[in-house]
Every structure is written in structure tokens, then in C-alpha cells.
Design a protein that fits this description.
This protein has one domain: P-loop containing nucleotide triphosphate hydrolases (Rossmann fold, 3-Layer(aba) Sandwich), CATH 3.40.50.300. The longest helix has 14 residues. The strands form two sheets. A six-stranded parallel beta sheet has the order 2-5-1-6-7-8, covered by helices on one side. It has a two-stranded antiparallel sheet with strand order 3-4. The chain is α/β, with parallel strands linked by helices. It is built from six helices and eight strands; from the N terminus they run βαβαββαββββααα. Helix 1 crosses helix 4.
């Protein structure tokens, strides 16, 4: 099985990671790129609701519950004391796609774009994380020449950068854009 093309998005809470990803997905899919996402939750979460049959199945002790309809299906897997799966294990569970966008998993994503808002008063992550390949910010931020700066509201440019960084060259050629050369040198010099 081949490892999917992935790129991560990291940043402090409130920086706009989810907003950026939800704006990026339709731009990428409009280019003919199939996209899946993985989101890490730092807290307990539940996609099921008490009172539903699937919830009752899980509460009764089922390890996995698969809910299916004519529109979608969802698989819920209870860890029941087992360790949380790492990113590689989760990627292996996804159907094949052109690109996987990863939110969270700060320590295990091979390359990532840092989403940064100076107004949050938090430091940049990139100086301590060599896997950060660009900064997407809502205002100008002083950065070394080796770290491309992307405008957080320029979704087309961020999509170009994501394709350039995360996808094989032959796929990039079929999606070539006039904007890509603007950051090729900075990105490749890292």
C-alpha cells in the first residue's frame, strides 16, 4: 500500500486551521484533486448521540459500530484502554485519495503549514519545528528567506503551495499554475 500524499496544518487554538482547511478543500477538489482529512482531537469527543441504536451498541461493549445509509457510512471504533493510533495507522484506514490534509498531530506530520495570527499573542511554532515549510498568516510576519510567507486569505496561493509541497511532480504538472514559481526557490532551499 502506498503512503498517501499528506500535508499538515498546525497552529495555536483560534488561529484558523479548520477555517483554512474548509476553504482549501473546495479549491483543491475543483482542480480535480480528491481530498480526505484527518483531525486530531485533544479531548474526548463523540459523534454519536444517546438514544440512538448505534450509541446503545457501543455502550453495550461493541468494539466497532458501522452505521450506513444511502448517503454515507461511518465507522466508530472504541479504544477501550488501548493506545491511541498514530497518524500512520489512521492514514492506512483511509480510502485512497490524491491528498490528505491533516489538522493537529503536531509532532508526527512530516511537512506542515503553520497557521499564525499575531493577534493571539502566541509565538511562532516554526523556529522549534523543522517540519514547518511555510507560514500562512493574516498579516505580514518577519520570516527568514527559507520560510515562505502565505497570505491566510489567499486560498488559491495556499492551494498552489500545498500541491507543490505534498504531491508528486507528475501530478503537479497536470495541475500547473502560473503562481507556483513564486515560492519554488524558497521552498526547495530548505
Amino acid at each position: 500500500m502506498r503512503t498517501p500524499n499528506t500535508i499538515g496544518f498546525a497552529g495555536w487554538s483560534g488561529s484558523g486551521k479548520t477555517t483554512l482547511i474548509t476553504r482549501l478543500i473546495p479549491v483543491l477538489t475543483a482542480r480535480g484533486i480528491s481530498v480526505s482529512t484527518i483531525k486530531h482531537a485533544h479531548h474526548g469527543f463523540d459523534i454519536d448521540k444517546p438514544g440512538k441504536d448505534s450509541y446503545a451498541h457501543r455502550s453495550a461493549g461493541a468494539t466497532e459500530v458501522l452505521v450506513a445509509s444511502g448517503n454515507r457510512w461511518a465507522l466508530m471504533h472504541e479504544l477501550r484502554g488501548h493506545p491511541e493510533p498514530d497518524l500512520g495507522e489512521l492514514l492506512a484506514r483511509l480510502a485512497p485519495v490524491d491528498l490528505v490534509l491533516v489538522e493537529g498531530f503536531k509532532r508526527t506530520t512530516s511537512i506542515k503549514i503553520e497557521v499564525y495570527r499575531p493577534s493571539l499573542g502566541k509565538p511562532l511554532i516554526y523556529p522549534d519545528d523543522p517540519s514547518v515549510v511555510a507560514i500562512a498568516a493574516d498579516m505580514s510576519v518577519p520570516l527568514p528567506a527559507t520560510i515562505p510567507a502565505l497570505a491566510l486569505d489567499d486560498i488559491e496561493a495556499i492551494a498552489d503551495f500545498v500541491v507543490f509541497q505534498a504531491m508528486p511532480t507528475e501530478r503537479q504538472l497536470s495541475l500547473s499554475s502560473e503562481r507556483m514559481p513564486a515560492f519554488k526557490n524558497a521552498a526547495r532551499s530548505r
